Sequence to fold (566 residues):
Amino acid sequence: MFAFLSSQPVQTALIVGSCAALVSALIGVFTVLRGNAFAGHALADVSSAGGAASFLWGISPLLGFLGMAWIAAFGMEFLGVRKARERDLATGIVLGAGLGFSALFLYLDVTTTSTTGAAVSVMFGSLFAISRGLIWPAILAVLAVFLLVGLFYRPLILTAVDPDLATLRGVSPRWMGLLQLLVLGLAVAVCALAIGAVLATALLIGPAGAAIRLSRRPAQAIFWAMIIALTAVWLGIWMAYESYYWFSGNAWPVSFFVVVLIFLFYLLAMLGSSWQHKYQRRGITSLRRLQEP
Amino acid sequence: MTNQSPILAVADLSVDLGGRSILRDVSFDLYPGQLCALIGENGAGKTTLLRTLLGLITQRAGTVLIGGAPAREHRELVGYVPQKINFDPDLPLRTRDLVRLGLDGQRLGLPFFNGRTRYAVDQALQAVGAEDFADQRVGELSGGQQQRAVIAHALVRKPRLLILDEPLANLDFGSANALVDLLGRLIVQQKMTVLVTAHDMNPLIPVMDRLVYLVDGRAATGTVAEVVQAEVLSKLYGYPVSILHHGGRILVLPDAPENADVANMNRCAGHGV
Ligand SMILES: Nc1ncnc2c1ncn2[C@@H]1O[C@H](COP(=O)(O)OP(=O)(O)O)[C@@H](O)[C@H]1O
Ligand SMILES: [Mg+2]
Fold:
């Protein structure tokens, strides 16, 4: 255990991983509430183009992921129309275009620079290989997300409940939608850095989806999403580290363990909530029986 | 009544949607303490009219004044209960959270505990009889309970004008009566003004002071006695209709079935018992 914690790559992985867990849990709850899971997934996938470009131009991968996620967010907001079906369509179109660029940049990475493994680390992450210099930018991104979501907490929830009711309280659903996409972009960038652009969705949607089933209040859902995400990331990092010894010198990737753990937690939450429902219903009917004369 | 200024003044309102004329020259005034029923068949333009009053749709012509000012400036005077909100069963939001959003949903910062807020929320829950399911998720409630939750959301700021879109449409007989009673109580006890849409006027007859009768985007307005007359409604429908009174209920029927086409007959009959 001491060897585990004293290793520098492990420390960096734990810090950046925790950042990704916290930020994705928070924004994930709002994303799931608004039925925006597909948009979240698309932003994450498209951000891979930015990650790939960052290798090419030698800029920070965090900036690469973030820039591309924001461009995609604006694209979706610009193309996107009110109706859910048109929103999915706009999202799909932006997703396709973005992945095209990703293919190009990854190809150029391999042919024009000496970066081997760029594709794997952009798409699926390599948490143990993150440079220490990215710790502070990641923490800053997390603080920005917490500040913005904390500030606009109630308007965001009200908009998720019903855009008309929000408008009548003087909240603009349009601005809230844009704010949410921008914050989602920040979260996606940190997640993509940690477990890869393609797998970022798992961290964004999984813990939030599980927590929502277990909670009766938004704050409660955010709390449980954070617990689930942090547990998955910490356990995943530890298991990946230990897997070096399990598989005689061939450590499996962190992302794999994190994603599998999230999936397991989601299954558990589903079982838990259906058990809870059954129990509640039985509770209510037995109460009724008592009250009947 | 008329010595007061109207809480809602609608003058020559015309609305187009998607290039089609939906409302034409609708005018009516509503004074404090009145209950006004907005009656019309499906597609007559009731929801469009309400959304225009609330400033959610912009009119082509005409004016809407709420408390003497343009609608958008006096939104805090108005509470709105949409026809149907689809609450996801998994939505982690209790009834009391939804009600609280009606009070401070526009505020910045986190919703910390606040005694005064809690009191206002409890009052609103009590007014609609929602105490029993205050701590349940909104998505798990029955349709009628969800409606009461949304009414509490609208009431919690003590609006002067409460607007409800087809609140009786999905309720069984008992719940519908309970809701009509509630509306009557709000007018008397809280001096509220209520505007409520329905496709059948009968359940509302005991409590309504005024009637706006919409047919294809045109309106006849006045008291029940003024509007529900063969002459007035015949002119509105564009063909002769008769009015039957039966056991305190009102039925509007086309006069000469051999002249009116079947579609029109059915449309008319839809307003009856
Ligand atoms: N966004 C829209 N674009 C075009 N037409 C619309 C739109 N919304 C409603 N309509 C049309 O306006 C008419 C009135 O609709 P509505 O106000 O919803 O009627 P009601 O509430 O009385 O049933 C209907 O014919 C409907 O098809
Ligand atoms: Mg309607």
